[in-house]
Amino acid sequence: MEKIVPYLIIGAVALVILIILIKNICIVQQSRAYVIERLGAFSQVWEVGIHFKLPFVERIARRVSLKEQVLDYPPQPVITKDNVTMQIDTVVYFQITDPKLYTYGVEQPMVVNYGNSSQQRGDDGYGCRFCQCWDSESDTGGGRYHGR
User: Fold this and answer.
1) H/E element holding 72?
2) How far are the Cα atoms of 1, 33, 46, 49, 83 from residue 29, in angstroms, in the given order?
């Protein structure tokens, strides 16, 4: 019995090391990118393929999808140049091209703000400009385009 105990301890330690090594093998899919931090600071961006993460030193900060994504905002009332209130429905299509900038560039990227963004001033430098609208008095089957 005394001769078996050291072998059990060595086997258990080897098993724990093997599990740690297997858990740190990462396979990145084609439509994804992984942002890696080493000791809390940006290290690199992993693209497609198999990668090995250093145990207890590196961590995956963010798994970023490189696919085109859609944000759908609820309808909002806007007032046109003709002082007519109408509802607009906003759909934003976007695709992340720089995973590092997406991760570290802004605090909460692409958070849907359900506030009424159409009520922001059009010339304040941040937010959308709702200066172009359609007029129903057109001969082109639905509207004439107005722009500033």
Assistant:
1) strand 69-72
2) 49, 8, 10, 7, 51
